[in-house]
């Protein structure tokens, strides 16, 4: 805060307040009077200071910045904000943990949210990703159960490693993400030292209408750096807000963190017989198959002025996609297209998109109207379409082509149609055998063993050992030995 002559206190109606210290009373010893509108306003507003915290990703921090295109990507997308090298788009980015509440520690073992709002000339584009390229489940009907297994139990109100391993070992599709979570990437040193991934497969469409499947990778220019388990635990005690502080201080001192956006791009037709399902959120596309293409640079250079207004009320939604970008048949993505705006309507209110942090910089000409707290409106614009009175008109020629794919089939509940290599354990096995260093592996084993030794019952422990054997027999043996059940 800067040094300045203070303004006169007012009520929220702008009326000069009578006192910062004393309520209105009958004589010095009271009683207090209902006509002390200022006191009553203060008490009532105070009682309403919180909005419901996010059910997931409650604790976080964020910053403003920009995205700059560095390469020509018009062969793959017509998105206006990606149309020209050098073009800059303002962004707001929010980082978060997943399971903890609003006041919880930043440095606990957890995936980290990495959500980006691009304020483009064609409306807001939200990429709501994580610091991991994959996820625990691949069907949105399992998401709520997964989160319940990670959060507080109904009886003890404490988190339960037993519940976590119970869910994971009964959900083998979780193995890839759990391997990453239990590696030191589960405890990033700072938000600046981690990558961000769009995680899902998305569609890009170019000006000629050609379609591509794509994956987003934001690679940290600060370098990957993680805490060990012990360091993360120590920091949890020393400074629960360490990641918030680190990002804030880095930006304050002009050390602006940056990420290089690299895309993997798959021809539309290649998806059908790719060796595994390219829309399965528990899998990555090996770089060898689809080498990353550099697209641009994300830079964070401005701290929020007000945490509540800009971070707590920030509302990201994967359904915000601009022309040239579309969804894919990833079932998790399709579920999220509904669930994010739904939670914002509940948590913040139906007109959450009018708050400055969420409002697009592009003009809004919709036929939606009214609702609690709406203050931007279209005056006397007609409230229905079609109309004869000059109301907005969609341009299907320009924006109407579907960013879609063909479907046919019976309406059923089912796993994805299998591809040749859909196995849940191949990719975590590759990570263990081909990517992790000796040190990474030692830490992964120690982190798994430490977690399993903390309240996991024997039957679930046996399943967990089997789960790790399926990732890699050697890893399974090391875990078994670590929990005292070795051969
Ligand atoms: P590559 O050797 O081309 O890439 C390996 C990737 O693994 C790099 O992107 C690297 O990220 C990342 N990585 C390194 N250490 C870890 C860790 N502890 N946890 C998670 N990721 C890590 O291999 P492939 O593309 O053939 O993939 C092999 C395995 O690598 C996959 O099964 C997957 O587990 C993992 N991986 C693959 C990614 C992909 O998109 N292909 C992305 C991330 C992980 P960095 O460059 O930042 O160090």
Structure description:
The protein has 487 residues and is α+β, with helices and mostly antiparallel strands. Among the domains are: 60-154 and 187-361, Beta Barrel (Catalase HpII,  Chain A, domain 1); 426-482, Hemocyanin, N-terminal domain. 28% of the residues lie in helices and 15% in strands. The protein is built from 13 helices and ten strands. The protein has helices at residues 37-47, 143-150, 161-170, 175-182, 229-238, 242-252, 307-312, 331-347, 396-399, 426-435, 438-452, 458-471, 473-482, and strands at 60-69, 88-97, 112-120, 123-130, 196-197, 202-205, 211-220, 258-267, 293-302, 325-326. Strands 1, 2, 3, 4, 5, 6, 7, 8, 9 and 10 form a ten-stranded antiparallel β-sheet that branches. Strand 6 (202-205) and strand 7 (211-220) form a beta hairpin. Helix 2 packs antiparallel against helix 3 (161-170), helix 4 runs parallel beside helix 10 and helix 12 packs antiparallel against helix 13. The radius of gyration is 25 Å and the shape is globular. The N and C termini lie far apart (63 Å). The model has no long low-confidence stretch (mean pLDDT 96). NADPH dihydro-nicotinamide-adenine-dinucleotide phosphate is lined by residues 133, 180, 183, 185, 195, 219, 224, 284-288, 427, 430-431, 435-436, 440.
């Amino acid at each position: 805060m800067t040094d300045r002559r203070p303004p006169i206190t007012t009520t929220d109606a702008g009326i000069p307040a009578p006192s910062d210290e004393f309520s209105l009373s009958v004589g010095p010893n009271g009683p207090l009077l209902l006509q002390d509108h200022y006191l009553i306003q203060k008490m009532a507003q105070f009682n309403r200071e919180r909005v419901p915290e996010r059910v997931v990703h409650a604790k976080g921090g964020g910053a403003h910045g920009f995205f700059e295109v560095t390469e020509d990507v018009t062969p793959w997308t017509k998105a206006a904000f990606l149309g020209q090298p050098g073009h800059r788009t303002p962004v707001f980015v929010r980082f978060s943990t997943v399971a903890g509440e609003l006041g919880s520690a930043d440095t606990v073992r957890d995936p980290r949210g990495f959500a980006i709002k691009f304020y483009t000339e064609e409306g807001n584009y939200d990429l709501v990703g994580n610091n991991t390229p994959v996820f625990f489940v691949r069907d949105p009907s399992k998401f709520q159960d997964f989160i319940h297994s990670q959060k507080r139990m109904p009886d003890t109100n404490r988190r339960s490693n037993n519940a976590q391993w119970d869910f994971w070992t009964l959900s083998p599709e979780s193995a890839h993400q759990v391997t990453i979570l239990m590696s030191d990437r589960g405890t990033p040193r700072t938000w600046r030292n981690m990558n961000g991934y769009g995680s899902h497969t998305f569609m890009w469409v170019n000006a000629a209408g050609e379609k591509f499947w794509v994956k987003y990778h934001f690679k940290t220019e600060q370098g990957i750096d993680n805490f060990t388990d012990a360091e993360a635990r120590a920091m949890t005690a020393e400074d629960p807000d360490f990641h918030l502080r680190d990002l804030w201080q880095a930006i304050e001192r002009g050390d602006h963190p940056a990420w290089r956006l690299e895309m993997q791009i798959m021809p539309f037709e290649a998806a059908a017989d790719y060796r595994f399902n390219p829309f399965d959120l528990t899998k990555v596309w090996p770089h060898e198959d689809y080498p990353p293409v550099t697209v641009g640079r994300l830079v964070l250079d401005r701290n929020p002025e007000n945490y509540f207004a800009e971070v707590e009320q920030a509302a990201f939604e994967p359904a915000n996609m601009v022309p040239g970008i579309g969804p894919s048949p990833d079932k998790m993505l399709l579920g999220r297209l509904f669930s994010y705006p739904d939670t914002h309507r509940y948590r913040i209110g139906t007109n959450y998109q009018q708050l400055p942090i969420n409002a697009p910089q592009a003009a809004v000409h919709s036929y939606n109207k009214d609702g609690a707290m709406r203050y931007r409106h279209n005056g006397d614009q007609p409230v229905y379409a079609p109309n004869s009175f000059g109301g907005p008109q969609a341009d299907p020629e320009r924006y109407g082509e579907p960013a879609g794919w063909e479907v046919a089939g019976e309406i059923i509940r089912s796993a994805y149609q299998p591809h040749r290599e859909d196995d849940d354990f191949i990719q975590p096995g590759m990570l263990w055998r081909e990517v992790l260093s000796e040190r990474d592996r030692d830490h992964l084993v120690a982190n798994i063993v430490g977690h399993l030794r903390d309240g996991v019952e024997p039957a679930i422990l046996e399943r967990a050992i089997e789960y790790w054997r399926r990732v890699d027999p050697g890893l399974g043996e090391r875990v078994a030995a670590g929990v005292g059940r070795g051969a």
